[in-house]
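Continuing from the previous page of notes. For each protein in this section, the sequence appears first, followed by its structure tokens. Read the first protein now.
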Amino acid sequence: MLLIAPPVAKPDAPPAGIALLAGSLRHHGVPCTLLDANLEGLLFLLDQAENPGDTWSSRALRHRHAHLVALRSLTLYRNRDRYQRAVRDINRVLASAVHSRPELSISLANYQDSSADPLNSRDLLREAEQFERSIYTPWFRARLPDLLASENHRLIGISLSFLSQALPTFALLGYLRSTFPHLILVLGGGLITSWMNSRDWNDPFAGLVDHCIAGPGENPLLRLFGIDNACEDPVPDYADLPLTDYLAPGPILPYAASQGCYWNRCSFCPEAAEQNRYRPIRPSTALTHLRQLCEQMQPMLIHLLDNALSPTLLQTLGEHPPGAPWYGFARVNEQLADPDYCRTLRLSGCALLKLGLESGSQHVLDAMNKGIQLDLVIRVLDTLHQAGIATYVYLLFGTPSESIDEARQTLAFTLRNHQAITFLNLAIFNMPRGSKEAVQVGGTAFSAGDLSLYRDFIHPRGWDRRAIRTFLDREFTRHPAISSILHRDPPLFTSNHAAFFSDCFPWPAG
């Protein structure tokens, strides 16, 4: 079986989804090959890019290979200005790769086509039918025939996790169906799971894809090979992937110790709307996996992918270091206000924690059922800061209980605590289409497509998206203390590279 991670996603680390599937398949004796089409396609486009003639593009093209080398080295990440120039120049070269196609927009983190809606199944199917027009088709033709012939693959599994991957994925499906009609095509991943969990799902891809899989794909794939008794919690297998080719100063190990969220009570949460059950791996098993993978990969950093690291897992990692610096999402809780506990986390390798604060208004937090108190948040931020653990704080504007008054409370809270906040992410609220709260407000879907996951709504307090953007632009981000935090954020890679720009990141000697 060939397992493919499609374009476009941030190319900083190997894809965790297909590595987990490979671990399961190989454990049961099913041979498989992994292909990171995202990384390889990106490098292909960078190599094929032509100069559209402007000065910036000319300079970026001249230095593209040097920038790629630098983005894989330690030195660049110690010079923020050089790092930003390298990332933006590589992004410029990507843009020049599609300069003759004005409908296309591509970056290191995104792919858009103004002529096609990735949330419309008809547009996706048309992308498959017209795969010849895809910018990735020359790479498909150069890479896939020999790979498929050499290993005699019978099944192709594609992991579609992000909306930015949808259009290239369907061009790939169209190419495979046209060129290799005998192959069995299987489609899974996070985005497919969200679509299939929608009450409006009607399997629009049945004529193109042989099997669509929602949720964990290990057992469904094994059943396609006649294996029913799958082992629980296989260790991911990254062996096939080019670990030194990713755009990071060393290998990054992505690992998920759970699926779903252990809290799972927040209003408007997509996890709750999609009724995703919380499935944790035993902390002792997760620790064993991490130590084994660290021995194999020698990662520069572990990225824990959980929606929220459970208190038990955090305790385990603190008491038993996994073998490399690590970071991930955590819920604010009393443990994180304990200085000794946070120092233990720091000594175990915790470099950064992402915190979904959402609001600096207690009224908004209570209305969202976040289950946190602002006085505790203040103590947690201060304790993490004193322990030398960076924080990446997520704020969400525009929930139904918020108005400009509560947004200004968030501004005031952020200013009072700015010295303990390392990075900030600002987002505008999207109403999950399937949430129970969506029926309480009017509005329409963001997209006319049948696969839209979110909807617009009539804000009960008149706090619409235009007003929110004006507030963020004219008030929130203009304050010098906040703009300096936002300036720290690595362009395009954002939280994926943020730990490397923490003053306390444990760089290797030399």
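Done with the first. The second protein uses the same format. Note its length before scrolling.
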Amino acid sequence: MQKTNLPSPPSDLADLGAVEAAALIRSKEVSALELVDATLARIERCAHLNAFVTVTADLAREAAREAERAVMRGDSLGPLHGVPYSVKDLTLTAGVRTTMGSAIFEHFVPQHDAIPVARARAAGAILIGKTNTPEFGARQMAQSPVAGRTLHPTHPQYTPGASSCGAAVAVASGQGPIALGTDGGGSIRIPASCCGIVGFKATLGAVANLQPADLFAANSYVGPMARNVADTRLLFNAIRGPHPLDPWGQGMHAGRSGPRELAGLRVAWLPTCGNRLDPEVAAVTEAAMRALQNQGAHVEPVGLDFTSLEPHFLVLLETLVASRVGPHLAQFGERMDPEVRAVALRGLQRNALELQEASFARTRCFQDLQRVLERFDLLASPTVSAPPLHIDVNPEGLIEIDGQAEATVRAAWYPYTYPMNLTGHPALSMPCGRSRIGLPIGLQLVGRWHDDDFLLSVAELLEPHLRA
């Protein structure tokens, strides 16, 4: 072991962050195999949380041994060399089954990595396993017909969020410092908020994603999840970049570089967008706005109506699920999540006019947000309108906010997130406080197109000033 100026590693290496772990491996103070073994031990101790569908222990150990040999040879090392990470079970991993949370694909083993997975591998990251997701990521419930229910890392009676539920729980509980999630309506940011971690959905096209069949209508993203902003940025930088087959990456340009201070930033504050806000979330997120103001930022409330977008989002969601599931209903319908099956059946009843109107609504939402961001550097909002909901809440039924019966989970709990999937703007959720019983509360930051680095820098500057 060599002596360096790096801080001593923690007693349990599974608690290392990605930036610190990569530095310690590079300096030979920690071996990749030691780190992988510690992470696998943590996964075993946290098995009751059910974050993983598949654990790739043997493959990870072999990759760690090769990573250690590379260090000893003095090879050129990637930025994530030897760092374990997980991938949500919607994203393709060569040689490792990818179930999509569905009996339809329960035994499917892809031949190729998805582009972000290939890039993480090239950067030296070691796949530790595939994390749980509801079926096709199509339901705001942390369970699937394949792997069952994933539990919140600290409050098992409350939801960890979805659909990147396994990824968020794994990161929050130290079952790997970083993870790849996917986000089709808030599926990275919602569980990040619920579990008290950082989740980032970059600008549409900033991370090439070739899995959607209709890339021109894409609203699904692959993105990083971590316990802090620096680790999030490290994974994002490893997977970012266009691809010739992804239309949204063509002509991708660099946005603004990150600010050096928060002073002078113009922040649009969106406490509600046509919904009711829980008082605890209001208090915590308003405190975050005061923290920004105390650092010299200008914060101004703005008004946007996102809740009226929900019917159009449902058209897009239901027709997408119908196109994916419809051919399999006869064979697998009885083994599917009943609500996902119902979503597919509703999608089969939609017509072309409804789909076109949904596209028009998407354009209007984009333009409304653009008008706000012409005057401000970024938009801030709660990530969700209330702390994590009870685990037994019906995600398709009406929910209560502040003791008042409201709308469905999508319209009442996360109206802030799914519009950003349609508009393509980068959006990040970061922890900013907790409820009276200790449930995490998240703050969402939204930037201009291509301002991914700017948004991450703002979050990193703000991070020390929040009561996470």
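What the second structure shows: The domain at 13-244 is CATH 3.90.1300.10 (Amidase signature (AS) enzymes). The chain has a mean pLDDT of 96. We return to this in next week's lecture.
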